[in-house]
Structures are given as structure tokens and as C-alpha cells.
Amino acid sequence: MIVRKLAYVAAALTVLGGAAAFSDKPYGGYLTPGEFEVTRILPPAPQPGDARYESDRAVFRGTRVLLATPRGVLATSDVESSPAALMRDFSCAAGVSLTPENAPKLAALVRRAGIDTGAQTNMAKDSFKRLRPFKIDDGDVCESKEKLAESYDYPSGHTTRGWTWAMILAELAPDHAQEILKRGRAYGESRFVCGAHNQSAVEAGFISASATLALVRTKPAFKVDLEEARGELAALRANPAAAKPQGCAAEAELIAMPVVIPPAAGR
């Protein structure tokens, strides 16, 4: 399902031809207001009565049992989305412990690109106004329902942030791209394991981040910052004194397992 929906990202490339008409002056990110609108790329949010809506409900109900498993523990850990937390989450995949202190150029690059991807996802949330799953069906979630209810479901902001990190890190460390992208996929899936988002919102978060980054990558300022971060990361990885992350074998085994919904639970 996710792979099929990511095919929508190809449509984002059609906007690039017209992008040159806009100013390169940033508004905090790399893009200019009005330069891109991800709602024209995303499929509509599921509506009551359609198959995607019912699938979301089945996934939410079925995955509640996972909260008490190691996968639920990982989903709960993935709730924290600060730069330091995300750098920690991707350290095993990158092969070196990442922190805002030892990789400040990397942190600044993803922060700025994340302004763009986050802004697009937030605008889409406000446009679609899709309710979070626990507002539709009863069930436990791994974080505060009150806080989650302050914003809408579709697309997932956490997934957008995680996939922004994954896409950029994979470009900076292509020899670890598979591990990095796998961790980014698992970070997104943690959102419906947690119960904070519907599965469709996670899929939309992948699309929103990918589509927005397709345009961000064309910006000269991004290319300059990318190369600076590349050099910084290469030096960090080559440093024999650099700290190595712990618990990587256990994490790799956990995220390699597909999120399986017990058949009876989804009925």
C-alpha cells in the first residue's frame, strides 16, 4: 500500500518546471510561500463509507494489542520528535551516534528543510481536517489524547519529520541508505502502532515529505548546506573516537518485523 501510494510522489515533479518563476528568498525554510502546495499531490483524506476509511479503523483496532509489546515500546519512544531525539533514533542506521553537538550542520540542514516539509503537512492537515483514530473508535494510545486532539490526523506530522530525516540522511550516507530508509519507514509506522494516527495519515506523511523535498533539493542554498553537512558527517563517521550507538542489533531485528494485525482483531 505504502509503495503504491508513494507513486503519487512522481506527480510532484510536474511542479518543478514552474518553480523557477518564484523567488529563491526563503521564509525560514528553503521554499517561498505559494511556491508549492502539497494538497494538489496528496490523495484526498479517507471519508466515511470508503474502503480506506474502513481499513484505517481496522488497523487502529487491530494494532491496540501491540502497545504492550516491544514494538509498542519503540512506538512510544518514537513520540519524542526533537532534533536530538531524531538524531538518536537514526544513529544505529547511520552507523555513528548523532547529536546536535557533534553534527550541528546536519541538524541545521534538516531543521531548515523540515520547516518546508512541516509547513506543507500542517497546511494539508488544516485543509483535510481528518479526525484522529481514537476520535472515531475507542482504544488506548501511547501518548496524551488531549494533546493529540489539538491538531488533525492527515497527514502525520511525525511521519513527515522522520521521513525528512531519512531522505536527507540517505543522501548523505548512501552506503547506509537501506538501513536509514528502513528506520524512517518504521518511525512512520510507529504512529499507527501508537494509535496517534491512521495508517492513511502515515502514508500521506511519506508522500508529503517526499514531494516537498523534491522541490527543496533544487534550491541552491539547500545544495550548499547539503555539501557542508556531507563533509561534517563523513568526518564524524571516519573518526575512530566517535561514539557508536548501542542496542543496534535489537533495534534492527525489531524494525525488520512487519507490523502484523491479528486477523480477529481487525474484524
| Strand elements, count | 0
Based on Cα principal axes, name the global outline.
globular
Beta-sheet strand percentage?
Answer: under 5%
What's the gyration radius in Å?
Answer: 18 Å
- Write down the overall mean pLDDT: 90
Instruction: Give the termini separation.
Output: 19 Å
Q: How many helix segments?
A: 14
Main sheet summary: none
Which parts are unreliable, with pLDDT below 50 for 5 consecutive residues or more?
Answer: 1-26
Q: Helix coverage percent of residues? A: 55-70%
What would you call the structural class?
mainly alpha
Description:
The chain has helices spanning 2-6, 9-12, 16-19, 51-63, 70-77, 83-89, 91-94, 104-128, 145-148, 157-172, 177-194, 199-216, 220-238, 248-256. Residues 1-26 have low confidence and may be disordered. The chain is mainly α and 267 residues long. The two termini are 19 Å apart. Helix 5 crosses helix 11, helix 8 (104-128) packs across helix 13 (220-238) and helix 11 (177-194) packs antiparallel against helix 12. It has 14 helices and no strands. The longest helix has 25 residues, at 104-128.
